[in-house]
Fold these 2 entries.
Entry 1:
Amino acid sequence: MNTGILSSRHKRHTAEIRLRPFDPITGDIVVGVLEDGRPAVINVSNQSGVVVGGVPGSGKTVGMMLIVLSLLLSGITRVHVIDGKGGADWRWASTSGLDYSTDDTDAALSMLKRMHLKLRERLTSLPDEYGTSNWWNIHSRQRPPLEVIVIDECQLWFDLRHLTDLSKEHKEKCSTILSLATDLVRRGRSAGFILFVLTQKPTADSLPTNLRDNCGTRICFRVLTAEAGRAVLGDLPTGAPDPTTIPASRRGGAVITTDSGMTSMCRFAYMPEGEAERLICMYRTDASKHTAVINNCETGDTVQQAPSTRSTCAKCQGGLFFR
Ligand SMILES: Nc1ncnc2c1ncn2[C@@H]1O[C@H](COP(=O)(O)OP(=O)(O)OP(=O)(O)O)[C@@H](O)[C@H]1O
Ligand SMILES: [Mg+2]
């Protein structure tokens, strides 16, 4: 039976972490282990943007999968994935019934327009409905869902200088995608929206500074140059961990920002795609048994808090509870 234990071999430590649902109160997501063997945690509390960069094969998508899983298992999150690579990397998400779009520009644009509209509606309605204009200040049991948007290989649309289709129409669509993404990050925090942007070409073109600078949480897997590291992490003080020193063999190795504003070297835990798919499917199958469900359909804006009784469910105990 699956125990929810993930393996992560660090340079000096071989460690196992237990995948935990995203903590809606602290905003913590456990992703792996730090160099000293303690859990590596990214914090998304009061954040609206997360930048993820690294060379091809460094572990971005697998790391993101872990984050998505943790968010979904909390039962209070809706996840929307745009896969700019258009390959099989996010197949598990599409087959698990997540809101999903491939590298089709029109489909990506349409999803972002839909999310942007929802953002605007929520910004207007939050104060009247919940008595506060900040989603993070609403009691965790009463919040509307945390809306999480993931754009994998965002450079496909963001890097306006290196577009594959040079037609005016395509350029305009890409420019709109970038504007919508930038505005989601600019205004999403208080509405309970978080955008994750992933790129294998971290440059100032693929991660424009007006977008990146509003992303409080940053994850830099292996990169080859200091410039690429800066494009993800920004300027770091002398002595900060250097993502160019991560060897190619250490997939999942990354520098992450912590909630104290510092950076740490860590190793992301690893879970095969099939396992993630199995966990999500199991959770969704059991949704009828539990009153709290991961609700990715567009009907009903309220997702209840995950019930504590889940841990006693005979069906999902093995795969879904990570204590
Ligand atoms: N944390 C990890 N521990 C061990 N192996 C890992 C880890 N993360 C990824 N890998 C291995 O590296 C491979 C590539 O990972 P992944 O697809 O996440 O890379 P990527 O950075 O998204 O690459 P690309 O930019 O090409 O999409 C995985 O298929 C897996 O075999
Ligand atoms: Mg990838």
Note: The pocket of adenosine-5'-triphosphate (ligand 1) is lined by residues 54, 56-62, 85, 89, 200, 251-252, 268, 270 (CB under 6 Å).
Entry 2:
Amino acid sequence: MLFDFLVPQRIIFGPGTTGRLGEEAGRLGRKLLLVTGRRALEASGMLDRILNPLSAAQLEVTIFNEVAPEPTLEVVEAGLEKARRANVDLIIGVGGGSVLDVAKAVAGLYPAGGPAKEYFEGRPVEKQGIPWLAVPTTAGSGSEATRNAVLIDPDTSRKQSIRSDYWIAAAAIVDPVLTMSMPPSLTAITGMDALTHALEAYTSRWSHPLTSALALEAAVLLCRNLYAAYSRGSNREAREKVALGSLLAGIALNNARLGAVHGLAHPVGARYHIQHGLVCAILLPYVMEYNLVFVEEKFAAIARALKIVPPETSSNVAARRLLSFVLRLRERLNIPAKLKDVGLRPDDLSFLAEAALPSGSLAANPRAAGFSDLMELLQANL
Ligand SMILES: [Fe+2]
């Protein structure tokens, strides 16, 4: 057995841990760029919760609040310019996956030189960036634990990752209280993204004992608590468990990679401008069905851990029971059943399947999937 395992230097988890932001940031730098979304943070009243500990620690804060969902290379360039002008020594990202990915890319490329596009197109990242600290406000992307930033090239609409082991966060503060203001629809799609991470990492060709332990626990936490967090956003216990599930799934995916859902999700999301979590939520059961006979034992292990089947149930039946559970969960979260419902058009299928083929996530899928297999998966979504 051979494996590699990379995690943030420090992970601080729990309700109220945002209060430790000043102390943690002060350990890493003095002048920081706070990367956040356009309005979400102020609108949800969280800005003070973030700024107060930073000012109490007497840190110099420059705010960059221009990150929109599904960020482009241009946003990273704008963040880099602002960071360089303010001569910062630390980046803090407070937001969902898009914000954290931009914060990560800005920190990683800060000393690198050259346009972000060169790195997007494959130039290796050869230098350590400046430290960055992740504060997720959604429970789904897992970006606080990963070394990749998913970005879109506005010239080609191509969506892919820049990744580097240097880009792992110096610290992640995961405070479930910050996720409590998410509306139900965002809770649903970010949570289903996290569940997809857990299931794909668990069944990936590169899974190993450390990632499997985390992914299994993440899958159980998310399956048991996502609907409760969705149906009553003030349910603190459910929010905490979903946030924990998302974090564990993020660590697992960072070390085991993903699968065909994520292989297809990037071209589909970029083509129709659909939120990543929504694409994943729709595609997940299709890919589970496609993979089922190859990962029967693994799906069955999750079903048994969830106690949705009696212990003596055969693996085939238990694995199918997990698939029904996920289908039912998706329905209860009011997520559409087909990509057609969010814009998939028949004449785009071959373009999308072709665009998914080079994906590293697809390469990790437990069952090989070529062009015709991807076409079938997409065809079933019409
Ligand atoms: Fe994802």
Note: Residues 193, 196-197, 262, 276, 280 surround fe (ii) ion (CB under 6 Å).
